[in-house]
Amino acid sequence: MATDRSHPSAQPPAKYPRTPSRVDPNNPPWPAYRGYHEYSFAHATMGVRLPTILGKAIDDVVKTLNDEYDEEKIVDLTACIARMEDLMDDLQDNAKLRPIIDDGEGDIPLWNKMIARYFRGKDFMNAPWLFAEAYKYRRLHECFSLSKYWKTYDVFFRQKCDTFSRSSDAVFELSLRFAKPWQQDSSLSQEDALEAKRVMFHELTQICLWGNSTDLSLLINMTEEDIKKLQSTGGDHLAATEQNILGNHLSKVWEYISSSKFGSAGKGGRMDFVLDNAGFELYCDCVYADWLIQSGLCSEIRFHGKRFAWFVSDVTRQDFDWLLNSMIYGQLFPQVSDEELASLREMGARWKEYVKQGKWIYEDHAFWISGYTFWALKEEAPDLFLHLSESDLVVFKGDLNHRKLTFDCHVPPSTPFDVAIGNLATEAGAPPVLSLRTVKSDVVCGIPEGKAEQLDKDEPGWKISGKYAVVLLSEGRKGEPVQF
Ligand SMILES: O=P(O)(O)OC[C@@]1(O)O[C@H](CO)[C@@H](O)[C@@H]1O
């Protein structure tokens, strides 16, 4: 495996970024992380984690194969396994990135134009990490999309369901508390009522944030105890972990959401969630979205998920439906009390009602499963940009979305968030953007000067532990007409 310590990105970051006109997917505004950079999490991911993840995915398919009885389907699935093995060879031999085979899916032009234009001759280790990693998941999808019977097969579905059922303590801690419809104490003065709302907002935003620290792709070998610790949602725990939010715009977010700028007069606002992980994290997102509707702060929530299995645990429509249905009909928690089960059912029923009434809407644009960063959103997905420009706040959940917002490059950590996300902050019509991210990879911005350097010294590994987080807001240029 090549290692080149003299490469510019192994050096301290340049003070000034690349001029915007020279930025492209292979040349981020600051130097990219690439698989051959040993100092970066890119190296371990491309060299070790991705082959391990793929190996487990093959095991999953073999399990399905052994349970199948129809010969035609068996033969078809055997071909999927053979394609997965080819992908494994390509990963392990560090092959060049070939075009995606046309499987009739709508995202093919996005992928193949991008490969032709920017990554001709690049391989898994020398292409920017973000692109190479996303490409691997698209290739994994191709293994199935070329089949006759298994086009929508999700190799990670079993794992995603499993972690939700293993999160029972935190699941019921939240359902017991939030199942009953939320109502404000009518005896409170206007000022006290607003303060009570602020406190709830603060707490639930944090629950939504820390829901991101249980990540299947990283925590495959976690014990039940480890999971419990990470998922604790109690007040004391949240107060303690708030100290780990290194860049924290929570107060600014509340100021905006509680102002007349959010939503139209007398009507709550529209909030969009660009989702990250299924299972427990999605459950936390929904608890938050539920309260945002009940409190009247929001009248509409749009959830944006992926069209197919992505970065192991990302939400697909199937995962979204699975969560809501299994809360009502599932038998995932045989050990819990009737009261606990009833609370989960009550909440699940309310959430399904939101879907029926159009207060919660699930969407899955092809751009979210492309290799592009969000710097390219307006250019490559103008329809999506226009759609999001109508939102009052777009919340990006998790590490991968944060990498895509910030071009996954060596940006100096004290760079303000609205500089690091480029034109998604500066374009006319750009919506307000909030990143709720527990830090699980190299790129960091929006934190105080010197903090990253201090943590590098005191806590090696802090960037991938999920112990630290950022809550960063860009105000955007909402309301200004979008120009193409
Ligand atoms: O987006 P998420 O679920 O918060 O994190 C995704 C993740 O686990 O995958 C990547 C490495 O494979 C890292 O960016 C990150 O740590």
Structural descriptors:
Transcription Elongation Factor S-II, Chain A, 484 residues, alpha/beta, single chain, binds 1-O-phosphono-beta-D-fructofuranose, Rossmann fold, 7-stranded mixed beta sheet, disordered N terminus, 8% strand
Task: Describe what is shown at a glance.
With 484 residues, the chain is α/β, with parallel strands linked by helices. The protein has helices at 41-67, 71-92, 108-118, 129-145, 157-165, 168-178, 190-210, 224-231, 235-242, 250-257, 280-294, 317-329, 338-357, 377-380, 382-388, 398-405, 417-420, 423-426, 451-458; strands at 245-248, 269-274, 298-304, 360-363, 393-397, 433-438, 469-474.
How is the secondary structure organized here?
Layout: H1 41-67, H2 71-92, H3 108-118, H4 129-145, H5 157-165, H6 168-178, H7 190-210, H8 224-231, H9 235-242, E1 245-248, H10 250-257, E2 269-274, H11 280-294, E3 298-304, H12 317-329, H13 338-357, E4 360-363, H14 377-380, H15 382-388, E5 393-397, H16 398-405, H17 417-420, H18 423-426, E6 433-438, H19 451-458, E7 469-474
Parallel strand pairs: 1-7, 2-3, 2-5, 3-4, 5-6
Antiparallel strand pairs: 6-7
The protein binds 1-O-phosphono-beta-D-fructofuranose (F1X).
Described by strand count, sense and barrel closure, the largest sheet is:
7 strands, mixed
CATH-scheme architecture of the largest domain: 3-Layer(aba) Sandwich
Q: Please give the order of strands in the largest beta sheet.
A: 1-7-6-5-2-3-4
Count of strand segments: 7
Backbone structural class: alpha/beta
What is the molecular shape? globular
Number of domains: 2
The topology string of helices and strands comes to HHHHHHHHHEHEHEHHEHHEHHHEHE
Low-confidence stretches: 1-5, 216-222
Q: Separation of termini?
A: 43 Å
Q: C-alpha Rg, in Å?
A: 22 Å
Beta-strand content: 5-15%
**Mean pLDDT level:** 92
